[in-house]
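Teaching note: in complex prediction, the entire set of molecules is handled at once rather than each chain in isolation. The prompt given to students was simply: 'Predict the structure of this complex.' The entities are:
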Amino acid sequence: MSEENLSDLLERAADGHAIGPPPLDQMLARGRSARQRRAGFMALAASVVVGSLIAGTTMLFGHGDTRQNPGDTPPSKQIVLEGEWKVTALFDVQGRSVPETIFGIRFGNSRVTATTRCNYISGPYRQSGPDGRNLEIADRLTVLAQRGQAPDGNLVACVVEPLYYSLLKVRHVSESSGNLYLRDENGKTIATLRRVGAEPVAPILNGLWEATPHGGYKVRVRFDAGTMTETWSNCNTVHVAYRQGGPNGNDLTFGDPNLTGIACSSGEPLLGRLDRVRHVSEENGNLHLQDVNGTTIATLKRVSTAPEARRQYEPCDGGSIRVYAKLGAALGSKGVRLTVTRTAGEPCLLPTYPQTVEFSYRDALLSLPTRLDSSTRPAGSVVLAKGSPATAVLLWGNWCAPVVHNDSIEFRVGTRRFHVRGFVTSPNCGENGGAPGGESLNIRNPIIIGFYARGVERTSTSPGAVAK
Amino acid sequence: MTRDDSFSEYVTAGWSRLVRSAILFGCSESEAQDLVQTTLERCLIHWRKVERASDRDAYVHRILLNTFVASRRRRWSGEIAMAEVPDHAHPDQTMDVDQAEAVERGLARLPHDQRVVVVLRYYAHLSEQQMSAVLDVPAGTIKSRLSRALTTLAADPSLEELRDVQ
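The expected output is the structure of the full assembly:
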């Protein structure tokens, strides 16, 4: 039991209280009255002291600087949904906890895609509100259900997952300590997600940029994890928090700048204009910072992409790699989660999907079912580094026909083959054409190959996968 | 977006969560709703300042906590106001209710300062740094309060699930 369980207990205890809607109109009306009273009082007070304040300020500070102290009010953090998540807790429409899952959810390009034990679910979503806390998923999602052939010859579909109904109820989202909480309109938790892999680097801003030369000064700008660092003429450095949002990352706002040096008195081209920036766009290697009307305020020229984007890795060849496997079964599907770990050496590249998955029975290869690679992730490789494992989920049906007996799965990483054993009989298939009492698992087409994803924390050693 | 629009969006998204936080602080449901309403009305007056805050949740929780402490100072709370008399039948939710009551009993046994840090950390999901800002105490104090609270909760016989929390 971990501290997460304390969170779960508190969530469940709090969820037991039905909360009505907020008395919004009443609050707004009271707020307006209070503001009017305050404004009247402030006007009176201001008329008395304003003269002496102006005089005093002018005497003390000359022209004065209306900018707030650096670092006082950086923008609050936008909730970033884009990327891959693992569902760590799910509650059905009655608020009951759904047992352990192997669900994965991906947000990207305004679409949410969920890979469940049985189905692929996808649909558009819209994030809005302060800090992106409002989240609405389309009222009708596309479900790509696995279909099987029932004994009577008819095609049947998997039961639609609790996740499907739960997603339809999502109205709000919050994030804390790497966890994402999807909530219904009453604030009840529907699902808890944990990010798989790092938060995606904003593709538009990523890298090093150079501002248009200004007064003979050389100005360089780097965007990194919410902070823009600008240096000019090797003289001054300014750090500014930024917040990027919008469906395509085109909304951009800056907080107050934090200067680390004042040796150069002029030559900085951006500082006084950042507070007007509202949008960003990239075109032909130029980054345009724009105001609310889309007018370009400043243009930056790309110098290089981020170092991590340029680095090249060798494909994983199977050496110094360890694989664990965990079996799961529910709702008409069986599956195995493969966790691949780099035990030594430099990081290497895994392919997008596990390669050459084969089924065997008593060490004899069976004919490979139709392979259906998951299309929920853009093509690409996963960097497998020591201490940062990757996982992939393989799914196949356990409907009772057509019957294929198997007791293991084989797959390859580079040139090395891994052998996962330990499958058992599907309990209900004996009278429907299965193989009662045998070591078989009744598989059917297609087998679905999930993509590799980084950053899974928990592994299992039962049953193990061994290299052949 | 106007100030009222922005405020309305925030309230719509966060109302239930804040009310439930107040309940875990020790308020009844109706008291919690009053408390959160008062808190949000205070926030509304200075809404632009709230919007600019580096951490809006921490800011609002700080006001919520101050309002809660102030309400406890001036109010005799031996009598709990109920919106309705709870004498009607409910569906059998024995396990859920038992568990919720066990958690609330466990929280009630904690001293106020420990109860608050548990709720802020494990329900409001504030970081130690944020809690330090909300409570205006050093991070080390937050850690020691959390540690003592977890020890107490882990020893609570009705919260067996928490035994391994330490």
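Point out the following to students. Chain A touches chain B through 52 residues (CB under 8 Å). The CA atoms of residues 110 and 247 of chain A lie 6 Å apart.
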